[in-house]
Design goal:
The protein starts with a strand and ends with a helix. It is built from 11 helices and 16 strands. It is an alpha+beta fold. The chain has 2 domains: about 5-105 and about 325-355, Aminopeptidase; about 160-290, 3-Layer(aba) Sandwich (Aminopeptidase).
Length: about 375
């Protein structure tokens, strides 16, 4: 098997409607990644001129990855094996240093307490990766930024109105909504100029959570590239219109994906994210979307897990995905990069600590 580079139109016709199509493999994501400095490759296979698989491969500085892909029939292990062999060959031919693959393959579905509802044996698939020289990242419980290992999903199929959706919430959530709705309104953003409030809310949360922040130009790019496939909502105080919280979610052929959110430290008592999540489900109900993906959580069901505890109140199930497989393609260069990165990492830590200190002083 040999991978070919698909045209954008071929990719757009195949990936969105495929069973394993998802937000990380959407064609718009390729455009977004290019806009922020990544090299992107739309790969795939054809049979009798018909596309039979696709893959968004990302690469920067010699490090390549496939997030929640490739998009193909993962049950056809013979095809999967040949595909992965071809992918390794493709990356080696281009001089890439390392390749990471995060298959969109679910291995279990659990309730909010961690009890297994479904389980899938993917040992044969894991063996294929192992035989090809990939190292498995393990069944970790941590949330992963590159591709979710644990996702919280609410199925609203069969629910006819918001009363039925509300009935699936925990009683404390319904109480919060009734308490704060008179003081807070939810507005869907209609222009790029309004994105400043989204950036402000996300920035405050990113600082608190010690994660890298994005400036307003990033959200402006998302607005331009994704069009009606992205929705920005802001919760505002009714009396003075001050932003309380913000939410961004994507729409695909299969689901709505709650991708990013942020709250104002000043107005956190208004429980803005509870109101925005309720608005998210309302949007899905009104638009005929039955799979509401609240996205990543930590897979630790017994320890201190506030994000899972918060999302569990909305009546979700938790899907566990297979995780990361990586292979070093150029050992010598990889060792050099690792040594350099260790030094740069220490410098970044010092720099970030300084920014947090300045932020606290300003506050």
């Amino acid at each position: 098997m040999k991978l070919i580079e698909l045209s954008e139109s071929e990719y757009k016709k195949f990936e969105p409607g495929h069973k394993y199509g998802n937000i990380m493999q959407e064609p718009e994501r390729a455009e977004l990644r290019r806009a922020i400095g990544w090299n992107t490759y739309l790969l795939g296979t054809k049979e009798d001129k018909k596309v039979t698989s696709s893959c968004l491969l990302l690469e920067r500085n010699g490090f390549a990855m496939v997030q929640m892909g490739p998009v193909l029939d993962w049950s056809d292990l013979k095809f999967v094996k040949a595909w992965l062999e071809a992918l390794v060959d493709y990356c080696k031919a281009r001089g890439f240093i390392k390749l990471e693959v995060y298959p969109y393959v679910m291995i279990s579905k659990r309730d909010k307490h961690g009890e297994v509802l479904e389980e899938h044996d993917e040992s044969k698939l894991m063996k294929i990766f192992d035989n090809l020289g990939f190292k498995y990242g393990g069944k970790t419980v941590e949330a992963q930024a590159k591709a979710m290992r644990w996702m919280s999903v609410k199925d609203i199929s069969g629910m006819k109105n918001m009363d039925e959706v509300w009935a699936s919430y925990k009683n404390t959530v319904r109480t919060m909504i009734r308490k704060h709705s008179p003081d807070v309104k939810i507005k869907e953003i209609q222009s790029k100029e309004e994105l400043r409030d989204v950036e402000q809310m996300f920035s405050e949360s990113n600082l608190r959570n010690k994660v890298n922040n994005r400036d307003s130009s990033y959200y402006s790019k998302i607005w331009d590239i994704f069009g009606d496939k992205v929705v920005f909502q802001v919760a505002r105080k009714r009396d003075d219109n001050d932003p309380v919280a913000a939410h961004m979610f994507f729409i695909t052929e299969h689901e709505a994906v709650s991708y990013a959110a942020g709250i104002s430290e000043k107005y956190k008592a208004y429980n803005g994210m509870t109101l925005l999540n309720d608005a998210f489900f309302k949007y899905c109900l009104e638009h005929g979307i039955t799979r509401c993906n609240m996205y990543g959580v930590n897979g630790d069901f017994k320890g201190n897990n506030p994000l899972l505890r918060f999302k569990a109140q909305f009546g979700i199930t938790v899907e566990e995905y297979i995780g990361e497989f990586s292979i070093v393609l150029d050992e010598k260069t990889y060792a050099k990069v690792q040594r350099k990165e260790k030094v740069l990492g220490a410098l970044r830590k010092v720099k970030y600590g300084g920014k947090r200190l300045i932020g606290k002083i300003r506050k």
